[in-house]
């Protein structure tokens, strides 16, 4: 038998990550060592030699290039690499045995793929697939060519505009620095002039006193005549008086400290510049936002239930926060179990992070970072910034507040934090910038993509309030289907507004003045919803209910 290969009966419990495709045809279970992408066959060391005799031009990849195996695995699980064997009818997903063990043990309906596939080759949906693929590829090619021309021009224009803005900002900085330098030098020149004038006065005073003493002595020596003695006495006394003045002058000048100029820079300048990493931030802004100048009214089509309870959970889940990362992964905050959970695109929990106190809300900040409100209603009032790194949730930083916290929103480097009686603006390092609005009973907040409007819900007052960025009230909305409004989200970049009522999810216009539609109800699985998120990627609402081990995904159109 070839080294590196082990052929045993297919019924053996030995599980390989990849089994030889040709050996499987002979009911043998042999570990594959190579892969042929053209044949889409996994091959053991023995079978690859036979394969090479028939297909000499085929390139095969060994274990060292195993990353190239994954993308060609039509019959393999994308997540675990094992052969796909069953279909979960509850989640409408193809599953390998590991998928079933980890994520689908509680599902009510599991079908074997051979049973589902029986007669499938004759079905219209299979026969129409090539045509549908060709049409989609044509559309993608058209979109690719159009996007290449349009987006490249748009990118170049935006690049030039931003570059000009950066240079203008640098010029403005230079002008400010020039003015600061000018004023500082003017102060230095003024002090130098004052010091030089003082020295000049001392020099002139010494010269004047020296000349006066010389003149007095010259006149004293020239005294003659019958009153010589008297006049000499008088001259002597005057000289003595002047000598005393001169002596005092000498003491006065010698007693003056030696002057020098000393400069002390403003201690706040250098730390400020050292703490700056850039003049500002550049963000990708989708031009699609321009197409959403009007409010599109959404309608729920179908919903599915996704289990988010994990084996570590002691209590029934209460999902109070939902946000989507740019990768398409989802973060949810489970209040009852004091943890944040990370879900992949298939909405399976892949990681979790335990918190010291219950989370109340969360939002995406930038990239793979999320801000989580942690508040126990007593001593702990924190904002914890978590970051997803290599599929794991880790603490990036955190800060405490002097007030209670109920929710958080993010816009362009600023955090908007609600307490039960006020809405605050904070910097990302935890410094309070200002109080935007004082209002009793605030529960949640969200910010429009352009930052011009802030939405807050008053839980007990059954009201949605829309503020401008300065905190001025623009509108108030009350509606029978918005009783005890809790969860709130604003989609990006489209700016659609969704609010959780007692048993509904309602869409509201951007101005916050009127209800546009009831998007989800009890029939869709909504019961006392606590959180809501609108996914632009999948055109679906994701809702977290009160004390429910599931989230509900509602497809909308």
Total number of distinct structural domains: 3
Strand content: 25-35%
CATH H level of the largest domain: which superfamily? TolB, C-terminal domain
* CATH fold group of the largest domain: Neuraminidase
Radius of gyration over all CA atoms, rounded = 40 Å
What's the number of extended β-strand segments? 32
Low-confidence stretches: 1-13, 287-292
CATH architecture assignment name of the largest domain: 6 Propeller
Distance between the termini: 59 Å
Helix/strand structural class:
alpha+beta
Strand order of the largest sheet: 9-32-31-30
Number of helices: 9
Structure description:
A four-stranded antiparallel sheet has the order 9-32-31-30, with no helix packed on it. A four-stranded antiparallel sheet has the order 10-11-12-13, with no helix packed on it. A four-stranded antiparallel sheet has the order 14-15-16-17, with no helix packed on it. With 557 residues, the protein is α+β, with helices and mostly antiparallel strands. α7 packs antiparallel against α8.
Topology:
Blueprint: E1 7-9, H1 21-25, E2 28-30, E3 34-36, E4 41-43, H2 45-54, E5 61-62, H3 67-70, E6 86-88, E7 93-95, H4 97-103, E8 110-112, H5 113-117, H6 124-127, H7 129-221, H8 228-255, H9 269-275, E9 300-307, E10 319-324, E11 330-334, E12 339-343, E13 349-354, E14 359-364, E15 369-375, E16 381-389, E17 392-400, E18 407-411, E19 414-418, E20 422-427, E21 432-438, E22 442-447, E23 453-458, E24 463-468, E25 473-477, E26 488-490, E27 497-500, E28 505-508, E29 515-520, E30 529-535, E31 540-545, E32 550-556
Antiparallel strand pairs: 1-2, 3-4, 3-5, 6-7, 6-8, 9-32, 10-11, 11-12, 12-13, 14-15, 15-16, 16-17, 18-19, 19-20, 20-21, 22-23, 23-24, 24-25, 26-27, 27-28, 28-29, 30-31, 31-32
Helix pairs in contact: 7-8
């Amino acid at each position: 038998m070839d080294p590196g290969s082990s052929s045993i009966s297919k019924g053996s419990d030995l599980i390989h990550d990849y089994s030889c495709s040709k050996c499987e045809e002979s009911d043998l279970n042999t570990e594959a060592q190579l892969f042929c992408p053209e044949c889409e066959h996994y091959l053991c060391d023995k079978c690859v030699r036979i394969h090479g005799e028939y297909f000499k031009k085929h390139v095969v990849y060994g274990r060292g290039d195993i990353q190239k195996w994954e993308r060609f695995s039509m019959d393999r699980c994308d997540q675990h690499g094992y052969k796909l064997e069953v279909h979960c009818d509850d989640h409408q997903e193809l599953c390998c045995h590991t998928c079933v063990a980890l994520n689908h043990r509680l599902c009510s309906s599991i079908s074997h793929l051979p049973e589902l596939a029986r007669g499938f080759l004759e079905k219209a949906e299979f026969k129409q697939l090539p045509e549908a693929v060709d049409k989609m590829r044509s559309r993608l090619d058209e979109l690719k060519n159009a996007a290449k021309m349009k987006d490249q021009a748009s990118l170049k224009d935006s690049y030039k505009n931003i570059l000009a803005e950066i240079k203008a900002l640098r010029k403005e900085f230079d002008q400010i620095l020039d003015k600061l330098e000018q004023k500082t030098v003017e102060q230095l020149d003024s002090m130098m002039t004052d010091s030089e004038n003082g020295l000049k006065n001392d020099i002139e005073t010494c010269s004047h006193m020296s000349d006066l003493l010389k003149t007095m002595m010259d006149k004293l020596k020239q005294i003659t005549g019958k009153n010589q003695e008297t006049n000499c006495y008088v001259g002597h006394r005057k000289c003595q008086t002047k000598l005393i003045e001169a002596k005092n002058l000498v003491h006065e000048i010698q007693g003056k400290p030696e002057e020098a100029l000393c400069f002390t820079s403003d201690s706040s300048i250098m730390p400020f510049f050292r703490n700056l990493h850039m003049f500002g931030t550049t963000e990708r802004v989708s031009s699609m936002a321009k197409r959403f100048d009007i409010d599109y009214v959404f309608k729920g089509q179908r919903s599915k239930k996704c289990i988010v309870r994990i084996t570590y959970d002691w209590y029934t889940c209460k999902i109070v926060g939902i946000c989507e990362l740019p990768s398409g992964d989802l973060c949810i905050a489970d209040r009852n179990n004091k943890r944040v959970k990370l879900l992949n695109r298939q909405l399976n929990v892949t990681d979790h992070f335990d918190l010291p106190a219950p989370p109340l809300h969360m939002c995406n900040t930038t990239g793979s970072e999320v801000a989580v409100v942690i508040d126990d209603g007593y001593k702990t009032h924190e904002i914890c910034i978590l970051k997803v790194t290599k599929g794991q949730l880790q603490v990036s930083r955190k800060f405490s507040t002097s007030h209670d916290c109920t929710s958080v929103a993010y816009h362009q480097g600023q955090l908007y934090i609600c307490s039960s009686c006020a809405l605050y603006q904070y910097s990302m390092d935890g410094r309070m910038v200002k109080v935007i609005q004082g209002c009793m009973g605030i529960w949640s907040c969200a910010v429009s993509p352009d930052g011009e409007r802030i939405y807050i819900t008053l839980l007990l007052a059954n009201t949605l309030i829309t503020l401008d960025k300065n905190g001025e009230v623009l509108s108030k909305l009350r509606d029978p289907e918005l009783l005890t409004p809790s969860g709130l989200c604003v989609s990006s970049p489209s700016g659609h507004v969704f609010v959780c009522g007692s048993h509904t999810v309602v869409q509201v216009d951007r101005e916050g003045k009127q209800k546009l539609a009831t998007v989800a109800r009890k029939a869709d699985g909504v019961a006392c919803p606590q959180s809501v998120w609108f996914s632009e990627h999948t055109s679906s609402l994701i809702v977290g209910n009160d004390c429910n081990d599931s989230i509900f995904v509602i497809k909308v159109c």
